[in-house]
Amino acid sequence: MPKARGALAPVIVTLSLILLASACAEERPAATAGAEEPGSAGQDQGEEEGTVTIAGQEATNRGSQDVAGASELELEVGDFYFAPTVLEGEDGQTLSVSLSNDGAAPHTFTIDDQDVDVQLGAGESGRAEVTFPDSGALVFYCRFHISGGMLGGLSVEGDLAAASGGSGGGGSGGGDSEDQPSGPGY
Questions:
Q1: Can you say how many angstroms the Cα of residue 143 is from the centroid of all Cα atoms in its chain?
Q2: CA distances from 177 to 3, 21, 66, 80, 169 (A)
Q3: Average pLDDT of every residue of the chain
Q4: Does the domain at residues 50-162 carry the CATH identifier 1.10.10.10?
Q5: Closest CA relative to residue 126, chosen from 117, 135, 134
Q6: pLDDT tens digits along 147-166
Q7: Domain extents in the chain
C-alpha cells in the first residue's frame, strides 16, 4: 500500500493547484467606473467595460455620465482609460473637471480645440475647464496613450464616431500621428 499512497500524493497536489488556479482566475475586481456618490450627476446604468468608438478610434469604455446642469465633475485618469469615458452635457456648458491620475504612468487630459493640456504624473491631481460644443461631440485624450484607446468625449446629443478635436484636430482622432509625442510610460 505505501506505493499507492505515494503515487496519489502528486495527483492530489496537482488537482489542488488546478482548482486553486481556476478559482483565482475567475475572481475579478469589481468595476468602480459606474459607482457614484449621492448627489452626483447621474451615471448611465447598464454600461459594461469594453470599447466605444470615438472619432473613428476604439476607446476603452468606462461608462458615460450625464452632467447636464453640473458645474463640476471628478474624472479618473487611469492606465489606458478615463472614467467616465463620455460626458453628456448641454451646448455651451462649462464644466470644471477635477482630474486624478490613479494609474502607474504619467497621463494627459488634452482637448486640442480648446488648448487644454494637463499633464499628470502617477498619483497626481489637476484641474481643467472645458466647454461643451454647440452640437455634436468633442474629443479628449491622453497624448501618450491615445493609440492604446485612452480617449473620451464631451457630447451634446452628438455622434461620438464623428467627434472632432482629436490629435491633430479635424476629427480623425489621429492615434498614429507621427508628430504625437510617445511620452513616458507604456
A1: 14
A2: 67, 42, 31, 18, 11
A3: 75
A4: no
A5: 117
A6: 999 999 999 987 787 776 65
A7: 50-162
